[in-house]
Amino acid sequence: MSHIEAFTFSVLAGYNGTIFAYGQTGSGKTFTITGGAERYSDRGIIPRTLSYIFEQLQKDSGKIYTTHISYLEIYNECGYDLLDPRHEASTLEDLPKVTILEDPDQNIHLKNLSLHQATTEEEALNLLFLGDTNRMIAETPMNQASTRSHCIFTIHLSSKEPGSATVRHAKLHLVDLAGSERVAKTGVGGQLLTEAKYINLSLHYLEQVIIALSEKHRSHIPYRNSMMTSVLRDSLGGNCMTTMIATLSLEKRNIDESISTCRFAQRVALIKNEAVLNEEVDPRLMIIRLQKEIQELKDELALVTGEQRTEALTEAELLQLEKLTTSFLEDQDPESRLEVGTDMRKIHHCFHHLKKLLNDKKIHGKSTVSSEIKEQDCQEPLKEEEYKKLRDLLQQRDNEINILVNMLKKEKKKAQDALHLSSMNRNEFRHSQSSPFPAGNPEGPRMSLSSAPTQAQDVSALGCRSSLLHRKTGMREEMSLGRQEAFEIFKRDHADIVTIEDNKQTLKQRFYEAKALGESINEARSKIGRLKEEITQRHMQQVALGISENIAASSKPDPVEEKLRSQVEEEKRRYKAMFTRLKALKVEIEHLQFLMEKAKVKLQKEFEAWWAEEATSLQVNSPAVNALNPMKPFLQTPEAQHERAQCLSDKSDVSARKILPSPCPVLHSQQQSRTGAFLEDSIPARPMSSIPLTGDSQTDSDILAFIKARQSILEKKCLQ
Ligand SMILES: Nc1ncnc2c1ncn2[C@@H]1O[C@H](COP(=O)(O)OP(=O)(O)OP(=O)(O)O)[C@@H](O)[C@H]1O
């Protein structure tokens, strides 16, 4: 049994667990916890754990399990819900922050962190993917949150045996910590310095908690110092199984960081936990138990008092009690008492009757007052002035009602429009193979392996993702032609396209394999059916033969039937093997689809960033500057190119970003400046000031695309 399997096994048994990856930036924490972005075989601990958990849940039919998922990101000591649907409409900073609440028993509750039920592995993986996409979309080139934020993916499991009142709860936190490098070494300033300080501080507090936990006689563990330690309070030390994965960089220059990571790992290894089961009683079953107890007590009481108390008092008893109450009230003696014995039903009825008498008296009193008023009204007719006042008031109220009705109508129309729009968006998504990715992608339509409802969910989930991306990146559903063209070039020259193409090929292969397997499975199924039919017919023949020849049925096995049976068994084995393979293929295909979706989101995001940057630089440079140098926005200086690469680069993809396409066909900087000079000399360029930007992004994109196309033709001419 692998470590993960053993670990998740105890979570299934009801123990809390945490697996966290600790190490410097780029050492492989995300790769370990979530997985690599390229191959199915690179999937990380989260998808593998989910796969194992759901496999076990399916096997164990003796218990009822419920699984929920939450995904929390901690950035600069603020918590964000990565599964908050509002991610679609807001930036990270606008989302409600996840806050920590502590109950009197010092249990931690997280406000604004949503829990999502996942009934299958696929649903859980969808949530992981959604969270990862939200995380990626929320980050900007200047804020690579994945490096500087902590992420906690939590699987909440509850289990109970049918009929039992005891429910077991367990949480498994899978934590991808921010990079652990020291501020001094990173040598950064501004926003990055603030982030680095927060990271160092939170990792420092995590270290303090770990040290405190490893010291035997420490009574106080400083969990409250940071959000991370507060969230992991019940899953670090104490009642929990904890595993730390230390990730190291093998480069020599990182030796200090590697030693510091190993030291930390050593301290973590000293903690000894005594995990206990998290059990609690189900309230519904508790009620049943208490009702039973009440009945037992009633029986006991009846036995002691010798009185069998039925549910209700008789009519005569009730009348008697009411009489008693009335005479008690009428009795002028202040010492008088209402004696009804120790029967609670009788006491309650007396009180009830008392209340009734009191209320009747009150109402009677009121009605006397109102009849007095009526009499007065009749005597004095309304004065003209008062009548006018009341009429005005009535008119005023009428107006108010009209205004409110109009407002209501408007709101209703708005809601209807929104509904209409969302249904249009859905339709657009159906055609949205119109996105920058050409139609007929092998990875485009989801495979028809899963059942129909799941497919519908998948499609709507993908639609949601697609529109989410569009809204987040500001990308329109319909790109202008120029923009589409630019995107095609951008995509073609992007380093990730190799991986995307590879995955596309693998996906195609897997898809064909799955299709072939599906056909073979169907064949095997029909063959089994045919064989069974043959067996039945053989039986009938044998019986008919016995009847016609009047021979008693032979106890000897029929060799033909035996052969047919062994063929059925063989086909069943084949069917099972193929089915298992198909299931594995389905998981692999889905994972590959996730990876490709992720790569697409990344590509579109980077394209948008690059496009926005180009548009800004064009705005800055035009019109006055461009009047002097029309080519300036396109023929960039090496410094400008370097700046862009810097801006877009991230820890993992430096090499990829370095070869991001420049807005003009790729030219080396020297060549560019030479060509630029040549163009300036030779082309009677129209000043850019004659093509002003409009401020409307769609129109400006078209203008930009037109200029680019023109410039590209001019360049081609010059190079010939
Ligand atoms: N075991 C591995 N095999 C292959 N590639 C790896 C492995 N570990 C990490 N990588 C690659 O190294 C790069 C950095 O890894 P990763 O993003 O997981 O680092 P990290 O520690 O999570 O960094 P950060 O702190 O910035 O989030 C990625 O491109 C990843 O694919």
TrEMBL record:
PANTHER family: CENTROMERE PROTEIN E, KINESIN MOTOR DOMAIN-CONTAINING PROTEIN. Residues 427-451 are annotated as: Disordered. Keywords: ATP-binding, Coiled coil, Cytoplasm, Cytoskeleton, Microtubule, Motor protein, Nucleotide-binding. Transmembrane segments: none annotated. It holds the Pfam family KIF9. It comes from the Eukaryota. Residues 1-271 form the Kinesin motor domain. GO terms for molecular function: ATP binding; ATP hydrolysis activity; microtubule binding; microtubule motor activity. Residues 568-602 form a coiled coil. This is Kinesin-like protein. Its main location: cytoplasm. It comes from Equus caballus (Horse). One of its GO terms (cellular component) is kinesin complex. Residues 427-436 have a biased composition (Polar residues). Belongs to the TRAFAC class myosin-kinesin ATPase superfamily. Kinesin family. It is found in: Cytoplasm, Cytoskeleton. PROSITE patterns: KINESIN_MOTOR_1, KINESIN_MOTOR_2. GO terms for biological process: microtubule-based movement. ATP binds at residues 23-30. The keyword Cytoplasm applies.
